[in-house]
C-alpha cells in the first residue's frame, strides 16, 4: 500500500466527461489499495475568466477580494470530482484551502504555504476516504482566503505530498511528461524519462510552465518524488530526481523561453562610479526586480549605454522611477522595449563542458538572430532577443544541441 497525491490541471478537469475520466483514474489507485489525496485546478479557462472579471470591475483591485474571486474555480472542481467519485462507489470528500487547512502568509495573490495540517485527512484515510483538495488556495495569517499565484495547484500538490509524507506526487496534465522544449512550439521536442530537480527548477523559472517554480523548489527541499504524466493516456511520465539518479548528464537538457520580461536602455549615461548603484538602488526601493543587465563601454569612454530587463508587468513602474533619475544620471534617453523574449538553455552537463555559449551564439548568428543581452549561471545561458524570433530561436537551439526527437 502506498500513499499518493494525484494532481489534475485545468484541461484534465475541463469538462464533465474529463472529470469522470479523472474519477476513474483515482478509483484505479484506490482499488489497488492505496491511500489517495487528489488536488485539482479550476476547470480549463475558469481562472482566466475570473481574473478578467476582477480587472473589468476595478482597475485598482484589492488583492484580498481578487483571491476571493479567483479561488472560486477550484471550489467547483473539487465538488464535482467528489460527486463523480461517489458515483463510482468511492467514499470521497472535498476540502477547500481553509478546511484542510493550508496555512499561508498574507501575501494575497502570491501567497506562500507555511504549513499544512493534514491530520483529519489522514484520519479519514483509515476509513478509505479519498480527500479531494482544492489547489491554488489557502488561508492567510489574516484568516482570509489566499491564492498561490498562477499555476499554484502544482505547489498545493507538492506541499500536500510533503505534509502527508506521500510515497509519490503525480502531476497529471495535458502533455505526457516534461519535454526538452515546450512541445507546442518545438515540434521535435523529445520526452525526458528523468530530469534533475535543479534543471527543472531552472526550466520552470525561465518559462517552462509545465510545473510552477515554487512546486519544484518545494519538491527539492522536501525530497518529494515527483512525476509529470498524461491525464489522457496510460503512459509512463517524467520523473524529477536527484542528480545522482542520472548516470550521464546531457550538456543541455532543455530549451525554454519567456515573454514576461521587458528591456530598458538608458542611453549615454555618465560613465562614473555610483551610477549603477543609483539606478538599481532606486528600482529595488520601488520593489522592481531586475533580471539581466548589460553595460556597454562607449568609444570615447565618456558615456555608456546601460541596458537591463524587468518584469513586463513592472515596466510602467520602472519607467516612473527612472524618469525621476534622468537628470541625476545625465542620460540622453530612456528607451523601453516590450517586444523581447528571453530564450534559455539549461543543463547540468554545462558545468563540465566548455564552449556551450559559443555553440548557442553561433547557432543564433547563423539564422541572423541578434542577441541583445546575455546572462549565464552554472547550469544555464539566457539570451534576450526580439520577440518575433521566439519559435525560430527555440527550434534552432534545440537542433544545435542535439535534442531533436529521432
Ligand atoms: P495544467 O493545466 O495541467 O497545470 P499547464 O498548462 O500549466 O497544465 O502546463 C502544461 C503545459 O506546459 C503544456 O501544455 C505545455 O504546452 C507547457 N510546457 C512548457 N514547457 C514544457 C516542457 N518543457 N515540457 C512539457 N510541457 C511544457
Ligand atoms: N487555476 C489556477 C490557475 O489557472 C491554478 C492552477 O491551475 O494551477 O492558475
Ligand atoms: Mg499548470
UniProtKB/TrEMBL annotation:
PROSITE patterns from the UniProt entry: ACT, ASPARTOKINASE
Keyword Nucleotide-binding appears in the UniProt entry: yes
Class of the enzyme per the UniProt entry, highest EC level: transferase
Position of the signal peptide: none
EC number: 2.7.2.4
Catalytic activity as recorded in UniProt: L-aspartate + ATP = 4-phospho-L-aspartate + ADP
Residue ranges annotated for the ACT domain, each copy included: 264-348
Record keywords: Amino-acid biosynthesis, ATP-binding, Kinase, Lysine biosynthesis, Nucleotide-binding, Transferase
Official protein name in the record: Aspartokinase
Pathway: Amino-acid biosynthesis; L-lysine biosynthesis via DAP pathway; (S)-tetrahydrodipicolinate from L-aspartate: step 1/4; Amino-acid biosynthesis; L-threonine biosynthesis; L-threonine from L-aspartate: step 1/5; Amino-acid biosynthesis; L-methionine biosynthesis via de novo pathway; L-homoserine from L-aspartate: step 1/3
Lineage: Bacteria, Pseudomonadati, Pseudomonadota, Alphaproteobacteria, Sneathiellales
Amino acid at each position: 500500500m502506498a500513499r499518493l497525491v494525484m494532481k489534475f490541471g485545468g484541461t484534465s478537469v475541463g469538462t464533465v466527461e474529463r472529470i469522470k475520466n479523472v474519477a476513474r483514474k483515482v478509483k484505479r489507485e484506490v482499488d489497488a489499495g492505496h491511500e489517495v489525496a487528489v488536488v485539482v485546478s479550476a476547470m480549463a479557462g475558469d481562472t482566466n475568466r475570473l481574473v478578467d472579471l476582477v480587472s473589468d470591475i476595478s482597475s485598482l483591485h484589492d488583492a484580498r477580494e481578487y483571491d476571493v474571486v479567483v479561488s472560486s474555480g477550484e471550489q467547483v472542481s473539487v465538488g464535482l470530482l467528489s460527486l463523480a467519485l461517489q458515483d463510482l462507489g468511492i467514499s470521497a470528500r472535498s476540502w477547500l484551502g481553509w478546511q484542510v487547512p493550508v496555512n499561508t502568509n498574507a501575501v494575497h495573490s502570491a501567497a506562500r504555504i507555511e504549513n499544512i495540517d493534514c491530520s483529519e485527512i489522514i484520519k479519514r484515510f483509515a476509513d478509505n476516504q479519498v480527500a479531494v483538495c482544492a489547489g491554488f488556495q489557502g488561508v492567510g495569517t489574516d484568516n482570509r482566503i489566499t491564492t498561490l499565484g498562477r499555476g499554484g495547484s502544482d505547489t498545493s500538490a507538492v506541499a500536500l505530498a510533503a505534509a502527508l509524507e506521500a510515497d509519490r506526487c503525480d502531476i497529471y496534465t495535458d502533455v505526457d511528461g516534461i519535454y526538452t522544449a515546450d512541445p507546442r512550439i518545438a515540434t521535435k521536442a523529445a520526452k525526458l524519462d528523468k530530469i534533475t530537480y535543479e534543471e527543472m527548477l531552472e526550466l520552470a523559472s525561465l518559462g517552462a510552465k509545465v510545473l510552477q517554480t515554487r512546486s519544484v523548489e518545494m519538491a527539492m527541499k522536501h525530497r518529494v518524488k515527483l512525476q509529470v504524466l498524461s491525464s489522457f493516456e496510460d503512459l509512463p511520465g517524467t520523473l524529477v530526481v536527484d542528480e545522482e539518479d542520472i548516470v550521464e548528464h546531457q550538456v543541455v537538457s532543455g530549451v525554454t523561453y519567456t515573454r514576461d520580461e521587458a528591456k530598458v536602455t538608458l542611453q549615454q549615461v555618465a560613465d562614473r562610479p555610483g551610477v549603477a548603484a543609483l539606478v538599481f538602488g532606486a528600482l529595488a526601493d520601488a520593489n522592481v526586480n531586475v533580471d539581466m543587465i548589460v553595460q556597454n563601454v562607449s568609444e570615447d569612454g565618456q558615456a555608456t549605454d546601460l541596458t537591463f530587463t524587468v518584469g513586463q508587468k513592472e515596466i510602467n513602474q520602472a519607467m516612473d522611477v527612472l524618469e525621476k533619475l534622468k537628470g541625476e544620471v545625465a542620460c540622453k534617453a530612456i528607451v523601453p522595449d516590450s517586444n523581447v523574449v528571453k530564450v534559455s538553455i539549461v543543463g547540468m552537463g554545462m558545468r563540465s563542458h566548455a564552449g556551450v555559449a559559443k555553440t548557442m551564439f553561433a547557432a543564433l548568428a547563423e539564422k541572423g538572430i541578434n542577441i541583445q543581452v546575455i546572462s549565464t549561471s552554472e547550469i544555464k545561458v539566457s539570451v534576450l532577443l526580439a520577440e518575433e524570433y521566439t519559435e525560430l530561436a527555440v527550434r534552432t537551439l534545440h537542433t544545435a544541441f542535439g535534442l531533436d526527437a529521432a
